[in-house]
Amino acid sequence: MAGGNYLSNPNNSFFSVEDEDVDDDTFLRNSRQAQKLKEIEDRALRSAQASISILRETEDIGVKTAEELMVQREKLERTEKNLDEINTTLRYSQKNINGIKSVFGSLKNYFSGRGDPKPTTSDSAGSSSGASGSGYPSTASLKLAEAMEAKPESTGPHPGLRIRGLADEDDGSDMRSPTSSNPLQSRFNHINDILDKNMDEVGSSLTRLKGLAVGLGEEIESQNDLIGRIHDKTDRADVTIQRQNREIKRLLK
C-alpha cells in the first residue's frame, strides 16, 4: 500500500488540512498517535480506579476498626461500672465488719471486767473508691463517631470503572462534555471530566481517612486511660477483699 493516498477526515483532529490527500506515512503516523493517546487515557483511568479502590477499602477497614473500638469501649465501661459497685459494696462490708468487731470487743471486755473499750477505728482508708472519671461518653468517642458518619454511602457504580464504553454511560448529563463536531476532542473532554470526578473523590476520601485516623488515635488513648483506671480499681478491690478476709478470720478465732 506504499504510495497510496487517503482523503483527510475533517472530523479527525490529527488531519489539519481538509480535502487534501494524505500519504501512507502520515496516515500511519496519525493512527499510531491516536492509539498511543487512547493507551495513555486508559492507563490514567486504570490508575485512578486503582487509587479509589484502595482508598475505599482502607476506609472500610477504618470504619470497621472504629466500630470494634466502640464495642470494646462499651465493655470496658461496663467493667469499670461493675468495679465501682464492687468497691462500694466492699466499703459497706467494711463498716459491717467494724461494727461486728466493736460488738465482739465490748463483749470480750465485759466478760474480762475491763469496761467499755474505745471504739475501734477502721483502717480502710485505702478502700475508698473515688468517683469514676470515665466521663461517658468520652470526647474521643464522639469524634470517632463523627468520623465514621462522614463516610458516604455508595449509591452508584465505581467512577473508576468507566474505562470502556464511555458513550454508553448512564450517569447523566453532568458527566458528559458539550457536544462537539470532533469526536476525538469530545472523547478527550469526556475523559477529563471523569478524571476530575475521580480526583475529587480521591481528595474527599483522603480527608475522611485523616479524620478517621485522628479519631482512632484519640479513642485508643482514651481507652488506654480507661484500662488504667480498671486496673487500679481491680487492685483496690483485691486488697480490700484480702484484708476483710483476714479480719473475719480473726473474729472467728
Automatic annotation (TrEMBL):
Compositional bias ranges of the Low complexity kind: 120-141
Chain intervals with Polar residues compositional bias: 176-187
Parts forming coiled coils: 66-96
Positions of region (Disordered): 114-187
Domain T-SNARE coiled-coil homology: 38-100, 196-251
Pfam family, one: V-SNARE_C
Entry keywords, A to Z: Coiled coil, Protein transport, Transport
Stored SUPFAM superfamilies: SNARE fusion complex
GO terms, molecular function: SNAP receptor activity; syntaxin binding
GO BP, sorted A to Z: protein transport; synaptic vesicle fusion to presynaptic active zone membrane; synaptic vesicle priming
One GO cellular component term noted in the UniProt record for this chain: SNARE complex
Family (UniProt): Belongs to the SNAP-25 family.
Name this polypeptide is given: Synaptosomal-associated protein 29
Annotated source species: Thrips palmi (Melon thrips)
Organism placement in taxonomy: Eukaryota, Metazoa, Ecdysozoa, Arthropoda, Hexapoda
Originating gene: LOC117639305
